[in-house]
Structure formats: C-alpha cells, structure tokens
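Students often ask why inverse folding is considered easier than folding. One informal answer: many sequences map to the same fold, so there is more than one right answer. In these notes we will look at a single instance of the problem. The structure comes first.
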C-alpha cells in the first residue's frame, strides 16, 4: 500500500508540474469569487458594518467548500476520464483493487490540494482582514470532515461507474455541500442538534469553526461524534463502490465508454 501511495503521489506531482497553470488559475478564480462576494456584501451593508466572528466563519465555510468540492469530484471525475481514455478496465485489473487505487490516488492528490487550499486561505485572510486561530488540534476535526467527504466521493464514484456521465448530479451535490458546510449547525438545539450529528461532515465543520473562528477549546465529545459520523459515511461509501464495481463487471461496463 505504501508503494502504491508513493506511486500515486509521484503521478499527482508530475501532473501538477506539467500543468501548473490549471492549478494556479483555479486558485485565483476561487479567491476572486470570494472577494467579489465579500465586496458586494460590504457595499450592501455599508462601510461601517463589522462582521466580527461571522466573517471568520464564512471564510472557513467557503475554503472548506472549495476543498470538499475537489475531494467529492476527484473519484467520479477520475472514473469518467479513465472511461473516456479507455484505461478504466486496466485499473480494475490491478492487483491492488480499484477501490484501493482510487483511495490512494485521492489521498495523494489531497496532499497537493491541501497546500493550495492553505495558500488560498492566507490570501483570503489578507484581503478580508479575517483573523483565524491556527493550532495542531485543527487536524483532528479536519480529518473527520475528510472521512465523510471521501465516503461521499466513493458513493458518487459508484454512480459514475454505472452511469458514466454524472456531471449534473455532481453540480447538485456541490450546492447541497455549500449548505452543509456553511450553516452553523453547532448552534442548533433539540431535534435539529440530532440532525446536525447525522448529516455528513456538519459535526466536524462545527468543531472546526469553534476552534478557528471563536477560539474555543476543543470539545472532545463533539469530536468523537464527528469521527463516528465520518467513519460511517466512509464505510457506506466504500461498500456502495464495491457493490457498483460488482454490478459493472456483471453488466460489462468497464471495457467501453
């Protein structure tokens, strides 16, 4: 598995240095889009408005959203690209298995994406004046969010494996993902609080906002709930991918686009 990870990491790095303009353009676009929204909101609210912690929470939600869009699209878009180039069947004949190949490929590409996301976050903080709290404990809630994101990514990959073209479905999920990540579900009470612990990635996003935007101490109980949530979605996503792989092989969908 380690050899597979290093091979996929080398593959991701080669693609990055061969086509750097694509990654840089994506970073600039996401940054400019947020700045446009921020400038429009300040113009509407007036020059004297003070966003306070809300601005920090919005920055966190937006940056997380851009990162999770990449993660959720990674496997599905990768499957479509492999199908179009005619190499999809070769991946499923790998001795590692298709699910392991795509998981290691996703983790390898995430390594580079995290660096670009951090650069984008620093740029957004500079142009908006947001002040976020950084500590090593941030990796704990972030890891729970990534678990859930990869679970959904495998589920979307299962759809791509069977349907081949899922661009419209991915677009719908992107807007739903913006709601899940940006809504302050940590403030919900009663039955809504229970719902926030069931929805994917919302528990981890709430803990991350409390740490970075509000400067609160790490809530270990909420973190444990977030880990369970992310692990469940990851297991369900992988199981759906395995089931889709079996049906695709039975229906002979791997050899052609």
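Output (designed amino acids):
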């Amino acid at each position: 598995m380690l050899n597979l990870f290093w091979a996929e990491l080398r593959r991701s790095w080669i693609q990055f240095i061969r086509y750097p303009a694509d990654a840089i353009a994506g970073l600039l676009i996401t940054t400019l889009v947020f700045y446009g929204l921020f400038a429009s909101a300040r113009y509407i609210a007036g020059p004297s408005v003070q966003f306070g912690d809300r601005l920090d929470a919005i920055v966190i939600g937006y940056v997380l959203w851009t990162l999770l869009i990449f993660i959720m699209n990674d496997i599905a878009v990768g499957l479509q690209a492999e199908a179009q180039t005619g190499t999809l069947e070769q991946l499923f004949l790998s001795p590692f298995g298709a699910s392991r190949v795509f998981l290691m490929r996703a983790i390898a590409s995430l390594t580079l994406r995290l660096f670009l996301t951090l650069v984008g976050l620093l740029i957004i903080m500079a142009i908006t004046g947001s002040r976020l709290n950084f500590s090593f404990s941030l990796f704990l809630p972030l890891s729970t969010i990534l678990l859930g994101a990869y679970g959904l990514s495998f589920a979307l990959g299962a759809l791509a494996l069977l349907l081949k073209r899922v661009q419209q479905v991915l677009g719908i999920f992107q807007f739903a993902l913006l709601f899940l990540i940006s809504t302050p579900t940590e403030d919900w009470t009663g039955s809504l609080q229970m719902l926030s612990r069931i929805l994917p990635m919302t528990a981890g996003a709430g803990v991350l906002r409390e740490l970075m935007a509000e400067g609160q101490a790490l809530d270990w109980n909420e973190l444990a709930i977030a880990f369970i949530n992310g692990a469940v979605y990851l297991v369900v996503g992988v199981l759906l991918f395995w089931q889709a792989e079996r049906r695709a092989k039975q229906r002979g969908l791997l050899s052609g686009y």
